[in-house]
Specification:
The complex is a heterodimer of chains A (about 425) and B (about 150). Chain A has about 425 residues and is α/β, with parallel strands linked by helices. In chain A, about 40% of the residues lie in helices and about 15% in strands. In chain A, the strands form 5 sheets. A 7-stranded mixed beta sheet of chain A has the order 4-10-9-8-7-5-6, with helices on both faces. Chain B has 5 helices and 4 strands; from the N terminus they run H-E-E-E-H-H-H-H-E. The complex binds pyridoxal-5'-phosphate.
Chain lengths: ~425, ~150
């Protein structure tokens, strides 16, 4: 980052903050400092309004009625899909499947693609820094099929050991499932390189984009990933909605996930014909309202601009890292060269849970725990960490407040 | 609620810093592990029983200030007690920390354990305060499988 870029305000944070009702709240008479964005992001008024508008004037079931409301609901629901398509640059909108979130997306791929194409003795590669939701579905599949889970080790900085990954790839490898950005460490993985290496073995790659999309520009075609999954609630959208993107050749070859209405073309007791993409994977009444809310979130992100969000969050990361490095007894967990705005740390003086508690009394919300990534905690020999995870509506003043609160933790537990 | 006093009483901070009976017992008659998966706390309670009497009791492990100080204070109170006395103290302690924040507390009954009354304001921390106690109870029941708060 050059100094000229630093001097110019990348975005008008004060103006942006006004769009987020939660950021106006106070705790114990102090302004709320929300630094738990990796868990879930806050929602701008535009997203809340989209939900309100849908339920007050558009609510109906989709793909069913011929009446006005149903046509409106279907149109706005499908418009949301098109927004996602453009946002991640999917070739077609039918390759965008709405799910409940990242976890459901990974389970969908494991239970359909995995059960069909992965068998006895086959291997699935993941990494040490995966979220539990990108570990457990594969373990379940391996147990069922007699397949083997192989794990890429990471360095003391929290970077993938790429040479080790190269050694793990072989003829038995049937899938690589990899986090784009680690929620526990902030590491941005070189997914493009990982994908290219896998493709050399004709191995498809699933990218867990829960922590990347919404913070950086994502282009699924440029990445050439086979599957990409993410959660709406981590990118300003509502809870209960997420996206699975897949290459058409895979999605077409996969059996359906859930059976029911909407996912069929015709049903007789002798034979059922499945619907085409994306509906084959959207059984039952979908989460219409929250898909529309996600569409509004994407509109908002694009208005601010993904490149500017990325640049500003990086500036916050650099600033926040500096603030934390001045705290006595602080150990940063996750010091990769390529990092997203996630600050995971421990303090010599206090357990992460106690840090979180004192910070809460200062109005500062962070996460303390294992962040659903227990293998990462084991790798670094800590039971838990405290984690401040940033978004583009955070400010340097908030990071200063974090620094002061951590000094206070040191005082209390001195 | 401006200050941290209600939760982090001086006694708690002091026991956190210098936990009592923070050691193993080489000739322990029993030991049980306790886990709080939510925060990653884990501890082991060791005891040397002399029939029904707790001859020696200690703990090891890692955890937050609340769980560590609670384990520490517990061991100081239980040494020399009978099994029945220990169970009675468990009930008193458990009843207190799980009661409403404004419920009256019998100071005479609880003695030093009163410092944990602040935990009642923070429901997520109750498990931290009771982990050692649940583990101890399981130990007295001569169970060996690990105890989990979840
Ligand atoms: C990297 C990563 N993957 C997956 C998930 C799971 O997302 P969700 O709970 O929205 O399904 C998370 C959420 O914390 C995450 O950070």
């Amino acid at each position: 980052m050059t100094t000229t870029v630093k001097k110019r305000a990348i975005l008008d944070v004060e103006l942006i903050r006004k769009d987020f009702p939660v950021l106006q709240l106070q705790r114990y008479g102090k302004p709320l400092v929300y630094l738990d964005n990796a868990a879930t992001s806050q929602k701008p008024q535009a997203v809340i309004d989209a939900l309100d508008t849908y339920y007050s004037s558009q609510n109906s079931n989709v793909h069913r009625g011929v009446h006005y409301l149903s046509e409106t609901a279907t149109r706005v629901y499908e418009e949301a899909r098109i927004k996602v398509k453009h946002f991640i640059n999917s070739p077609l909108s039918c390759q965008v499947i709405f799910t409940r979130g990242t976890t459901e997306g990974i389970n969908l791929v494991a239970q359909t693609y995995g059960r069909k194409f992965i068998g006895q003795g086959d291997e699935i590669i993941i990494s040490t820094m995966e979220h539990h939701s990108n570990i457990v579905p594969w373990q379940m599949l391996c147990e069922e099929k007699g397949a083997v889970l192989r794990v890429i080790p990471i360095t003391d900085d929290g970077e993938l050991m790429i040479e080790e990954y190269g050694k793990l790839l072989n003829k038995r490898t049937k899938l690589v499932a990899m986090g784009h950005v680690s929620n526990a460490l902030g590491t941005i993985n070189p997914v493009k390189q990982i994908i290219d290496m896998a493709h050399a073995f004709h191995v498809p790659v699933l990218v867990d984009g829960a922590q990347s999309v919404g913070h950086m520009h994502v282009d699924v075609q440029k990445l050439d990933c086979d599957f990409f999954v993410c959660s709406g609630h981590k990118m300003l959208g509502p809870t209960g909605i997420g996206v699975l993107y897949g290459k058409a050749e895979h999605l077409n070859a996969m059996p359906p996930f859930l059976g029911g209405g909407d996912m069929i073309l015709s049903v007789t007791f002798e034979k059922t014909t499945y619907n085409s993409l994306p509906y084959k994977f959207e059984a039952g009444t979908p989460n219409i309202a929250d898909a529309i809310g996600l569409g509004a979130a994407i509109d908002y992100l694009q208005q601010v601009g993904m490149d500017r969000i990325d640049a500003y969050e990086h500036e916050l990361l650099v600033y926040g890292t500096d603030v934390l490095q001045n705290i006595d007894g602080l150990r940063m967990i996750g010091t990769a060269r390529e990092k997203a705005a996630v600050l995971s740390f421990t303090l010599d003086s206090a357990h992460p849970h106690d840090i979180g508690q004192i910070l809460d009394q200062e109005g500062i919300a962070i996460r303390a725990g294992h962040h659903c990534a227990q293998p990462v905690m084991q790798r670094f020999g800590v039971p838990a960490t405290a984690r401040a995870s940033l978004a583009f509506y955070n400010t340097k003043e908030e990071l200063d407040a974090l620094g002061r609160a951590l000094e206070k933790v040191n005082e209390v537990f001195a | 609620m401006e200050s941290n006093r209600p939760l982090y009483e001086q006694v708690i901070l002091e026991h956190n810093k210098s936990p009592r009976n923070f050691r193993t017992i080489p000739d322990a008659t029993q030991k049980v592990n306790g886990y709080n998966p939510l925060c990653g706390d884990q501890l082991t309670i060791y005891a040397k029983m002399d029939g029904d009497r707790i001859d020696d009791i200690s703990f090891q492990g890692c955890g937050c200030a609340i769980s560590k100080s609670s384990a520490s204070l517990m061991t100081t109170l239980l040494k020399g007690k009978t099994r029945k006395e220990a169970e009675e103290l468990f009930v008193k302690f458990h009843t207190m920390v799980t009661s409403a924040p404004d419920a009256p507390v019998d100071k005479g009954d609880l003695g030093k354990l009163m410092v944990f009354s602040g935990v009642r304001e923070f429901p997520v921390r109750i498990k931290c305060a009771t982990l050692a106690w649940h583990t101890m109870l399981s130990l007295l029941d001569k169970k060996t499988e690990p105890v989990s708060t979840e």
